[in-house]
Amino acid sequence: MTPAKFIAESFAIATAAHLKHLSTTSYAEHKAFEAFYEALPGLIDSYAEVYQGLRGLIKKYPEAVCGECNLEEYLEDLAEVDCCDSPALENIIAEIEHLTAQTIYKLRFLD
């Protein structure tokens, strides 16, 4: 997955989580989605800035719409993100992975 696609899709999944936060009747889901959509954009912004500082400006981003995004698929897609030669980018990806896995736990096991 290209960095531009990863960034665009990540912002789309944050928006989808925000909308799920607003539409759920479960308090646990409401809070889990809230924590996720509040934290993810800042992490993605950091990834984008560090990536561009190391490799140059991304001049074009693909359109990304996430109607029925799946957090588990998102977590799996993190493995395909271009960051392997930069510890700084790997650390940000690890934070995103942590946030996503924690959100999946909250959605699966908390009432």
Verbal overview:
The protein has four helices and no strands. It is mainly alpha-helical and 111 residues long. Helix 1 (3-23) runs antiparallel to helix 2, helix 2 runs antiparallel to helix 4 and helix 3 runs antiparallel to helix 4 (87-109). It is globular.
Keywords:
single chain; 111 residues; mainly alpha; 4 helices; 0% strand; globular
Overall pLDDT: 90
Helix run count:
4
Overall number of strands:
0
Rg over CA atoms, rounded to whole Å, is 14 Å
Order of helices and strands: HHHH
| Strand portion | under 5%
Largest sheet: none
Share of residues in helices: over 70%
- Return the structural class: mainly alpha
Runs in which pLDDT lies below 50 for 5 or more consecutive residues are none
- Overall geometric form: globular
Distance between the termini: 34 Å
Write the layout of secondary structure elements.
Elements: H1 3-23, H2 27-55, H3 71-77, H4 87-109
Short description:
Helix 1 (3-23) runs antiparallel to helix 2 (27-55) and helix 2 (27-55) packs antiparallel against helix 4 (87-109). This protein has helices at 3-23, 27-55, 71-77, 87-109. It is an all-alpha fold.
